[in-house]
From TrEMBL:
Name of the protein this chain belongs to: NADP-dependent oxidoreductase
Organism encoding this protein: Gluconacetobacter tumulicola
Signal sequence region: none
Entries under CDD domains matching the protein: MDR_like_2 (cd05289)
Pfam families reported for this sequence: ADH_N, ADH_zinc_N_2
InterPro entries on file: ADH-like_N, ER, GroES-like_sf, NAD(P)-bd_dom_sf, Quin_OxRdtase/zeta-crystal_CS, YIM1/Zinc_Alcohol_DH_Fams
PROSITE patterns: QOR_ZETA_CRYSTAL (PS01162)
All copies of domain Enoyl reductase (ER), residue ranges: 13-330
SUPFAM superfamilies, A to Z: GroES-like (SSF50129), NAD(P)-binding Rossmann-fold domains (SSF51735)
Keywords assigned by UniProt, alphabetized: Oxidoreductase
């Protein structure tokens, strides 16, 4: 089968388009014919080697963390999926590889594709949807009437998180550029900070939660908008010791991550707020709940561009610019 392969870590390096064997199927897995794959900043970070110490990938490896497709084979212990089912998923860590014609995915990572979405729209959702869910619902326990700041509101995670936070009953502020102000307002943002004109930390105050997806300067400035007891949750780092424990990292790597997050944790403590890092994980139960929200019209996917499969490297470059409005997707079939 055809696939895009990472042969070695290299900043801005291109993935190799080549032939690889069709995946072998374990008893608890299904083989999926991929129709579309979402493109994420996580893929460019892995390609560049940013996570080589903490993620279980060793080149050569196929990248890609989102998929929508059709079940073509079933492992002998699989019970909840049948041949021909249209599904979508974010495969679990260590078993990713959606920039390919086929992939073997654990049954527990799958959910039925939303009936009202195309394959391309469905493929845009799993990683960003699960990220937003795990930040806002699981880690933040966001409640009706609370206030949340979602950075980069026009990006993949931001467009989804704004809609989810509004569904949860929160007041939503977001940061974005001038050209995307109307987009984020249409998604439900109550307060929009044009970062080209205003400093969010000087405008906002007394927030309960901040979802950060940007760099260290924005991360530190976000502390100023939180009320005592507030929560700063970052999906862009630095990783903390809790993440190290979850990943089962060795003692030395745990200490490295502890030191990497020491400064922001100390500054958060001084302001009587908490800091935590979230690296989302596959979860079919949560994805099925997201499906219900999509099928009911509460959340809609925001699409930037759809690239043909052969232009996967161009799609990665588009994501890396930081200018994508919503999600970038590659179409295989």
């Amino acid at each position: 089968m055809k696939a895009f392969i990472l042969d070695g870590y290299k900043k801005n390096g291109a993935l190799r388009f080549g032939d690889v064997p069709e995946p072998m199927l374990r008893d608890d897995e299904v083989l999926i014919e991929i129709h579309a794959a979402g493109v994420n900043r996580l893929d460019t970070k892995i390609r560049d080697g940013e996570f080589k110490l903490i993620l279980p990938y060793r080149p050569p490896v196929i990248l890609g963390h989102d998929l929508a497709g059709v079940v073509t084979k079933i492992g002998r212990r699989v019970r909840g999926v049948k041949l021909g089912d249209e599904v979508y998923a974010r495969p679990r860590d260590g078993q990713v590889g959606t920039y390919a014609e086929y992939i073997a995915v654990n049954e527990d990572d799958l959910a039925p594709k939303p009936k009202n979405l195309s394959m391309e729209e469905a493929a845009s959702i799993p990683l960003v949807g699960l990220t937003a869910w795990q930040v806002l619902v699981e880690k933040a326990n966001l409640q009706r009437g609370q206030k949340v700041l979602i950075h980069a509101g026009s990006g993949g995670v931001g467009t989804f998180a704004i809609q989810l936070a509004k569904h949860l009953g929160a007041t939503v502020a977001t940061t974005t550029g001038t050209s995307n102000v109307e987009l984020v307002k249409s998604l439900g943002a109550d307060v929009v900070i044009d970062y080209k004109k205003d400093d969010f930390e000087k405008v906002l105050s007394d927030y309960d939660v901040v979802l950060n997806s940007l760099g260290p300067d924005t991360l530190e400035k976000s502390l100023a908008v939180l009320k005592p007891g507030g929560k700063l949750i970052s999906i862009s780092g630095p990783p903390d010791i809790e993440f190290a424990r979850q990943q089962g990292l060795n003692f030395i790597l745990r200490q490295v991550l502890r030191l990497m997050s020491l400064s922001i944790r100390r500054k958060a403590k001084a302001r009587r707020v908490s800091y935590s890092f979230l690296f989302m994980c596959a979860n079919s139960k949560q994805l099925k709940q997201i499906t219900l929200l999509v099928e009911s019209g509460i959340i809609r996917p925001v699409m930037d561009r759809i690239f043909p499969f052969e232009e996967t490297n161009e799609a990665l470059n588009r994501v890396e610019t930081g200018r994508a409005r919503g999600k970038v997707v590659v179409k295989l079939r």
